[in-house]
Design goal:
The structure is a single chain. With 332 residues, the protein is of the alpha/beta class. It has two domains: 137 residues, 3-Layer(aba) Sandwich (Rossmann fold); 158 residues, 2-Layer Sandwich (Dihydrodipicolinate Reductase, domain 2). The protein is built from ten helices and 14 strands. The strands form two sheets. An eight-stranded mixed beta sheet has the order 8-9-10-7-11-12-13-14. Strands 3-2-1-4-5-6 form a six-stranded parallel beta sheet, with helices on both faces. Strand 8 and strand 9 form a beta hairpin. The longest helix has 16 residues. The radius of gyration is 20 Å and the shape is globular. The protein starts with 10 loop residues before the first strand and ends in an 11-residue tail after the last helix.
Length: 332
């Protein structure tokens, strides 16, 4: 059982979109000190009521307007990407802090509007990108500082999942679907985090009959190196990642975005195994970080910066549009 510091300010949350991600968010929130789930809204009332009953949420809102007007400090946006911009803008205008699931918008233009609104209203906005907050990822960074392999110059990462049901949201263009948008944000983050800002993208792939990318291979050049990334909905691949440097390389074992284990291999033949399990489903780490930022009066995360989110949006947009994937209403 949690024993929160009585000096900590309680952060009250509202949830937009009571789906899979929101369920994991609620699970993780139980492990976050001085944080509570106060309200929920969904496009389907039945799902919102079921979510409220499952996670003991006191208020079920009938509309988005009611949610952003509720007595909460922050909104967690967990709808499909097609509505992220609309919900973020309404929440920020209502004076709420916003943590939005990745990808935080359909494209760079929409994200810039969100960031401008956050700045105008003086509210914290952060894209929900969980890997850098996991114990393993933090331990890996610390370890490589103490026993370096040199600057990382190549990143390889990817994941394909052919087990997704035909009605899974990633199969639908009108929801902002496709492998690039659904799986690619993790790969984009990893490349940008280790290699720096994007310079260019090269993409190959194929589309599904619904007009979203069924498989995409995108190679990226950055200020400090290059990456080879892939996503897919009709193939199956394991989700590990590789970081290469002059004096060694790192394998972050699958699934690398929920990292538990990494292997560091050095040019001198040494091998080091790192193992750091996570608790409460993993969403708790980024949520706790966000709550601490609110208490500190900060308007931008030093881990998931606005510049990093813009870089991810730019990379994903370049990768999918090169294949001809565009979404209804994404230019609005």
């Amino acid at each position: 059982m949690l024993h929160p510091d009585p000096e900590l300010r309680q952060i009250r949350w509202g949830v937009a979109g009571p789906g899979r991600a929101a369920a994991r968010f609620a699970q993780g929130l139980q492990a976050v000190p001085a944080a509570s789930l106060s309200a929920v809204w969904g496009r389907t009332a039945e799902r919102a009521h079921a979510y409220a009953q499952r996670f003991s949420v006191p208020q079920v809102c009938d509309s988005l307007s009611q949610l952003v007007a509720a007595d909460v400090d922050a909104i967690y946006v967990a709808t499909h990407p097609d509505t992220h911009a609309e919900i973020c803008l309404q929440a920020l205008a209502a004076g709420k802090h916003v943590m939005c699931e990745k990808p935080s918008a359909l494209n760079e233009q929409q994200l810039r509007r969100i960031l401008e609104a956050a700045h105008r209203h003086g509210r914290l906005f952060m894209e929900a990108m969980k890997p850098p907050f996991f114990p393993l990822y933090r331990k890996l960074r610390e370890y490589l500082q103490a026993d370096p392999i040199g600057p990382v110059g190549f990143v390889r990462a990817g994941h394909c999942d052919s087990t997704l049901a035909p009605d899974y949201p990633l199969h639908f263009a009108e929801l902002g679907g496709g492998g690039v948008m659904g799986i690619g944000p993790y790969e984009a983050f990893l490349a940008l985090d280790w290699l720096g800002p994007l310079r260019r993208v090269q993409t190959m792939g194929r589309l599904s009959p619904a007009g979203v990318d069924a498989f995409a291979l995108f190679q990226t050049e950055h200020e400090r190196g290059m990456a080879q990334l892939h996503t897919g909905l009709d193939l199956l691949s394991r989700g590990d990642a590789l970081l290469c440097a002059p004096r060694g390389y790192v394998t972050i074992h699958e699934n690398w975005w929920n990292p538990v284990r990494a292997t560091v291999r050095y040019i001198d033949g040494r091998t080091v195994e790192l193992h750091e399990p996570f608790v409460a489903g993993g969403f708790n780490y980024e949520t706790d970080h966000f709550c601490q930022l609110i208490r500190g009066g900060q308007l931008e995360s030093p881990e998931i910066t606005h510049a990093l989110s813009l870089g991810m949006a730019r990379l994903l947009e370049a990768a999918r549009t090169a294949l001809g994937v565009r979404f209804p209403g994404e230019d609005t």
